[in-house]
Design goal:
The structure holds two protein chains of two kinds. Chain A is mainly beta. Chain A has strands spanning about 5, 10-15, 20-25, 30-35, 45-50, 50-55, 60-65, 70-75, 85-95, 100-105, 105-110. Chain B is mainly β. Classes of the chains: A mainly beta, B mainly beta. Chains A and B meet through strand 4, strand 5, strand 9 and strand 10 of A and strand 4, strand 5, strand 9 and strand 10 of B.
C-alpha cells in the first residue's frame, strides 16, 4: 500500500515563530487532506488540497502531486496551534466509490509562550 | 462544522461483552466510515458504507460489524470486545466518490478491561 511519511515528527516553537511541516507519499494520489488533532482529540479539517496552493489565515498548504509531497506552513504560531498535524491521502478507491484515507504518522507540535 | 455526532463519547466495558457505537450525521452524505486510532498505527479504516444497507470491510475489520439502516446513522458493533479493541474510534463522512473531502466526528474513547 501507499506509504505516507511526515516530518519532523516533533516540533517545539516559541509563540510567533513560523514553521513548515512536510508530507511525502510514495505513489500518486487522488486527493490529500491536512488535519489538526487538538489536545482534546478532535480532528479538524485544515485543507483539502490534491494539488496547488491554498491559504487560510495564518495557515497555507502546497501540494506538488507530480513530486509526491505536500507542505503545511504555519506562520506567527500561537499556543492554540499545539497538537498533532496529520496528512492523509487517498490512493485506493473503495467498492461503491468511497475514499480510503491513509494517514501519515503525524507531526506533534508544541507552541510555547 | 460538519454535523456528525458520535455516541457514546467514552465507554468502559468488560472483555467479552458486545458494544455498539453510533455515528449520526445531519449532512445527508452518502459515504460513512469507521476508523480506529492507535499509537504507532495512526488511523486505520475498519468498515465503510456507500449507501443504506451497503457496507464493506476496511483494513482492520476482524471482530467488528456494521449496519446502516438509514442514511444518517452508521453503527459499529464489537460482537465480543477484547482488550486489543481498546482504542479511539472515529466516524467520518464524505459527500461523493473520489475527489471529495472527508469530515470526522469527535471520536469515542473505548476501553476494554
Amino acid at each position: 500500500g501507499i506509504q505516507v511519511e511526515q516530518s519532523p515528527p516533533d516540533l517545539i516553537l516559541q509563540e510567533g515563530a513560523n514553521s513548515t511541516l512536510r508530507c511525502n507519499f510514495s505513489d500518486s494520489v487522488n486527493n490529500l487532506q491536512w488535519f489538526h488533532q487538538n489536545p482534546w482529540g478532535q480532528l479538524i479539517n485544515l485543507f483539502y488540497i490534491p494539488s496547488g496552493t491554498k491559504q487560510n489565515g495564518r495557515l497555507s498548504a502546497t501540494t506538488v502531486a507530480t513530486e509526491r509531497y505536500s507542505l503545511l506552513y504555519i506562520s506567527s504560531s500561537q499556543t492554540t496551534d499545539s497538537g498533532v498535524y496529520f496528512c492523509a491521502v487517498v490512493r485506493e478507491i473503495l467498492t461503491g466509490g468511497g475514499n480510503k484515507l491513509t494517514f501519515g504518522t503525524g507531526t506533534q507540535l508544541k507552541v510555547e509562550l | 462544522d460538519a454535523g456528525i455526532t458520535q455516541s457514546p463519547r467514552h465507554k468502559v466495558t468488560e472483555t467479552g461483552t458486545p458494544v455498539t457505537l453510533r455515528c449520526h450525521q445531519t449532512e445527508n452524505h452518502r459515504y460513512m466510515y469507521w476508523y480506529r486510532q492507535d499509537p504507532g498505527h495512526g488511523l486505520r479504516l475498519i468498515h465503510y458504507s456507500y449507501g443504506v444497507k451497503d457496507t464493506d470491510k476496511g483494513e482492520v475489520s476482524d471482530g467488528y460489524s456494521v449496519s446502516r439502516s438509514k442514511t444518517e446513522d452508521f453503527l459499529l458493533t464489537l460482537e465480543s470486545a477484547t482488550s486489543s479493541q481498546t482504542s479511539v474510534y472515529f466516524c467520518a463522512i464524505s459527500e461523493s466518490a473520489v475527489n471529495t473531502e472527508a469530515f470526522f466526528g469527535q471520536g469515542t474513547r473505548l476501553t476494554v478491561v
